[in-house]
Amino acid sequence: MEELDDDDDVVSEIKQLQQTIDAHPTALTILSLLQTSQALDRQESELQSRCMLEHAKLQAKVDEFEELLQRGKEAKISEILDHTLRDSTEKLDSAKKELAANLRSTLSLKRQLDDVPSQAELSQYELRFSELYTHIQAKDRQTRKYYATYNTLLEIKELMLKETSLLNSIHSQFKDALTSPAGRDKLIDSMEGILHGTRQKLEKVQIALKSEQKAHEDLKGKHAAAISEQRHYNSILKAFQVECARNERLRMQTSQGHLTS
């Protein structure tokens, strides 16, 4: 009976010890480490087995090569090595050719990318073209003004020549008019013809003047509309340039962020 009581006490103490171990975190850690150690031991054993197998295979190959050397088959081995060397050389040449082709393609793409202007360059080009267009317009207006002045002066010259010829004609007829009645009648008829022609000329000039005035008013309206459109275009261009600069800054920041990451 005492032995049974002792066995019960031992079993009870073992259970209490097991419960204490299960409840203690250090004990759990130790058990986990023991399991890990056992797993590592098994892996080490398996690795040693594989290493022994590989060693045996390699040793068998070494023995085979030694046997071949001993049998005087160095020529065959040299042939195999030469064939392997040729294959390797061909593969190397092919890889070099492929690398050169890729390099040429990369350089071509890089040149194409370099040829593509950035947003800032496009903005500068647009500004320069706008300035050139404005300069050409100013030159065109100046040239048109010079041509108009030349045509006006040429017309004045023709009118003055006609007036001089008319005065000379009147002067020559006036001498005849002082000496005879027929000369006076001829002078009167000539003056009436001159007056009629002058009136017709005046009417044509007035019609042309009205046409020029109407064209001038139309041009003034177009000029005002063009100025308004130019102001609107300048405001849009300024906003576009601001956005281009902002886009360029954001792109640089993004590129720097990619480089740092």
**Low-pLDDT residue spans:** none
Major β-sheet, in short? Answer: none
Structural class: mainly alpha
How many individual helices?
5
Distance between the termini: 78 Å
Helix percent band: over 70%
Pfam families: CCDC93_CC
Protein name: CCDC93 coiled-coil domain-containing protein
Domain CCDC93 coiled-coil: 10-251
Organism: Anisodus tanguticus
Question: What descriptive keywords fit this protein?
Answer:
261 residues; mainly alpha; 5 helices; 96% helix; 0% strand
Write the layout of secondary structure elements.
Blueprint lengths: L1 H22 L1 H46 L3 H42 L3 H61 L1 H80 L1
Helix pairs in contact: 4-5
What can you see in these coordinates?
The chain is mainly α and 261 residues long. 96% of the residues lie in helices and 0% in strands. The protein is built from 5 helices and no strands.
How do you describe this structure in short?
Helix content is 96%, strand content 0%.
